[in-house]
């Protein structure tokens, strides 16, 4: 039979505090898309939401699956367009929209096409700023925009420039896979 004592009860918060100190900052977990066929590692429990957006004149529903750690957002957005040509063209619109969100400037950009798997992609690394609670912060946006068939994907890390770490970049982006 367990015996209750105030001493053991008061030590519980200390034990939980000690255990939480051992919890890793990033709790990487594999996440699979529900509307689109992809998998990715996210650093925390993700949330998903959908909303209507305009991609180069096309009204589409974009589903975003995202997690946040230390003010840095890790996200994969997906949408379906009427055909593969419109999907390919929409990549520039997706890129422009995200750059505009941080009033950014692209420091690196690479476009590629992989005919064997039928993808077109644009990779960027951009810097800008954002006002959070009347405090202007330097922001960094790293993104990969991919079109495959009539689907588009935006794989994004965005957050305060100093909080975006090389380890997180090297874990997140290579983990994105189209199934």
Keywords, separated by commas or semicolons:
single chain, 179 residues, alpha+beta, Protein Transport Mog1p, Chain A, three-stranded antiparallel sheet, 50% strand, disordered N terminus
**CATH homologous superfamily placement:** Mog1/PsbP, alpha/beta/alpha sandwich
Can you tell me the CATH class? Answer: Alpha Beta
Query: In the residues, how many domains can be counted?
Result: 1
Percent of residues in helices: 10-25%
Question: Per the principal axes of the C-alpha atoms, what is the gross shape?
Answer: globular
Total number of beta strands: 10
Distance between the termini: 53 Å
Count of individual helical segments: 3
The name of the CATH architecture is: 3-Layer(aba) Sandwich
In this structure, how is the largest beta sheet organized? Answer: 7 strands, antiparallel
Numbering strands along the chain, what is their spatial order in the largest sheet? 3-4-5-9-8-7-6
Which percent range describes the beta-strand content? over 45%
Note poorly predicted spans: 1-23
Mean pLDDT: 87
* CATH fold annotation: Protein Transport Mog1p, Chain A
